[in-house]
Design goal:
By secondary structure, this protein is α/β, with parallel strands linked by helices. The protein folds into two domains: about 5-220, inorganic pyrophosphatase (n-terminal core); about 225-355, Diaminopimelate Epimerase, Chain A, domain 1, CATH 3.10.310.40. Helix content is about 40%, strand content about 20%. The protein contains twelve helices and twelve strands. The chain has helices spanning about 15-20, 30-35, 50-65, 85-90, 155-165, 175-185, 195-205, 210-220, 225-235, 255-265, 295-305, 335-355, and strands at about 40-45, 70-75, 95-100, 110-115, 130-135, 145-150, 240, 245-250, 270-280, 280-290, 310, 315-320. Strands 3-2-1-4-5-6 form a six-stranded parallel β-sheet, with helices on one face. Strands 7-8-9-10-12-11 form a six-stranded mixed β-sheet, with helices on both faces. Helix 3 (about 50-65) links the parallel strand 1 (about 40-45) and strand 2 (about 70-75). Helix 6 runs antiparallel to helix 7.
Length: about 350
């Protein structure tokens, strides 16, 4: 492992990413001191991990292994149902450990990547404080020994690409492929929430990545459950003005929710979509908008954050609330579904109308 005093000399200032990313306020030496001195590191992905959190975790794992940390585990909660996420894990042979098989308190360090608050979109207990947080989502109140929060950047994978540069970690093909695919997915092929840093990070990663694998992952087929969910969202849609809200009802694959929200945003005359579905005892929501005057993340947060967890960016957001906030319901009860839909439609359209009128 290089000496800590050499950190500034390893910044590789001639790369496209280094030339445009302002990381002068990031204490990379503190980060290295923490990681290099531990005997065990748990890297916690957010629940139901997507490519950005998976690739970021993989990059942090590579850094820790370069510094000879004896035990490094990538941990996750929830499930992996999205076909591209499952394909990414399988094709790139990403080893994941379910959080219910470990105790985070047994590790010397716990790092959060692509999320920051314990208990919000992750399965960590709310009382814990992570040691390391690296994230790009706008979040208040983050606590940790090392916190790198940069909401001006479009993907956490961009940040970890810069970490690999800073510490001269070799960009081997598997890792570069994971990070470049994450950039594609997080930005919808550089069409959503993309900043110049994502393009610069892609320039760094492009020569090292396997583009055949990226194409294979991009073309991963829909599962029957996802197709059925999108079909239900189409059938159950309600449109008021340029806003669309739809229900998938009871579902098994929560990833059908954001995919349906993306799909319905293509409907002519619609600029904002919010889709929700019920998984077990929770209502999962995804919002999308192409209306530059509407911040869908703020809409979701103000509507649901008091009863669950919700929020996101100006053009995409998500949330999860307990089913009990609506009332007692039974799985498969059509009357209950009708009541849920009436409540959710009224709440969501009321929130959207409030925002579009201001």
């Amino acid at each position: 492992m290089p000496e800590l005093s050499e950190t500034a000399e390893r910044s590789q200032s001639n790369t496209p990413l280094a030339m445009i990313m302002d990381d002068s306020d990031i204490d990379y030496q503190r980060f290295q001191e923490l990681v290099a001195s531990t005997d065990s590191l748990a890297i916690l992905c957010h629940d139901n991990p997507d490519p950005d959190t998976l690739a970021s975790a993989l990059a942090l794992e590579a850094i820790a292994k370069e510094w000879e940390v004896p035990t490094v585990d990538i941990v996750y909660g929830g499930t992996v149902t999205h076909q591209q996420n499952r394909a990414m894990i399988n094709v790139l042979d990403i080893e994941l450990t379910p959080i219910d098989q470990v105790s985070l308190s047994d590790y010397g360090l716990v790092a959060f990547v692509d999320h920051g608050i314990p208990g919000q979109n992750n399965s960590a207990v709310e009382e814990m404080t992570p040691d390391i947080i690296i994230d790009h989502h706008p979040t208040d109140g983050l606590q940790g020994q090392f916190v790198d929060l940069r909401p001006a950047v479009g993907a956490t994978a961009t940040l970890l690409t810069r970490y690999l540069e800073i510490f001269s970690i070799e960009l081997e093909e598997r890792l570069a492929t994971a990070l470049l695919f994450a950039l594609h997915r997080e930005t919808l092929d550089f069409n959503r929430e993309t900043t110049s840093t994502e393009h610069a990070a892609a320039c760094v990663l492009h020569p090292h990545a396997d583009h055949n694998i990226i194409e294979e992952l991009t073309n991963s087929v829909f599962t029957p459950e996802t197709i059925s969910g999108i079909g239900d969202a189409i059938a159950n849609r309600e449109v008021r003005g340029s806003c669309l809200v739809s229900s998938l009802g009871w579902i098994r694959e929560r990833d059908a929710v954001p995919q349906a929200a993306d799909y319905l945003l293509q409907l002519e005359g619609v600029s904002t979509t919010i889709v929700y579905g019920i998984v077990d005892d929770n209502v999962h929501l995804s919002g999308r908008t192409s209306n530059s005057q509407l911040h869908i993340g703020n809409v979701m947060e103000e509507t649901f954050d008091q009863v669950g967890s919700a929020g996101g960016h100006h053009d995409m957001a998500g949330g999860q609330v307990p089913l009990g906030f609506i009332g007692s319901v039974d799985d498969g009860d059509d009357v209950a579904i009708d009541l849920i839909n009436q409540s959710m439609m009224a709440r969501l359209f009321g929130a959207l109308e409030g925002w579009t009128e201001t």
